[in-house]
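Aim 2, interim progress. The first record below pairs a target sequence with its C-alpha cells.
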Amino acid sequence: MEERIERLESKLMFAEDLLDELNRTVYRQQQQIDLLQQHLRQLAQQLQSAQPPGRLSPEDEVPPHY
C-alpha cells in the first residue's frame, strides 16, 4: 500500500511539473502572438500611409505591356 501511494505521489509531482512547463510555454507563445499582432498592425498602418489615396489596387491595374 505504501509503495502504491509513493508511485501515485511521484506521478502527481511529474504531472504538476509538466503542467507548469506547459503553462509557461502557452504564456510565452501568447506573448509572441501579441507582439506579432502589434507588428502586423504597424505594417498595415505603414502600408496604408504609403499608398496615395484613390490609387488603384494592384489587382485593378493594367499590366504595362497592354
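The second target in this work package is listed in the same format:
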Amino acid sequence: MAFKIMSLSEAAAERIREIIEDSDKPVVGVRVGVKNAGCAGMAYTMDYVSEPVKGDDHVQDKGLDVYVEPKATMFLLGTVMDFEQSKMSSGFTFKNPNQTGECGCGESVQLKPADLKAIAEARVHV
C-alpha cells in the first residue's frame, strides 16, 4: 500500500490550526521543503501559504493542507511532521525515514532520496 508523501501528528495539526486562526493575513496551509544548510548538509524549511504554488505536491491531512516543494518530495516521502514543546523550546519536528544522520547542534540533517517508484505511487494516491 502506498503512503502519503507527508502526514501530520495531532500536535502539529493543532499548532498549524492555531497559527492559521491567529494570522492577520489569509493562510491556506503550510509549505514544507528542504535547503542546503549546516554541517550535516540539509535543513527543513516551512512557510505559511496564502496561495498554493503551482507544481507543489499537495497533501491533505487532519483537515489541513500541506504543500511540498517538488524538489523536496524525494527527501520527505513518509515523513511525519510533529510539534514538540519543552520548557526550553518549542517547534516543529520531522520524523523522516529518509534521514540518515544529523549534526550535533540539531540545525541540520543528512537525508537520502526516497525510491522514485515509491514517490510515483504516493503521487498517484493524492
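Residues 37 and 109 are 9 Å apart (CA to CA). This observation will shape the mutagenesis plan for the next reporting period.
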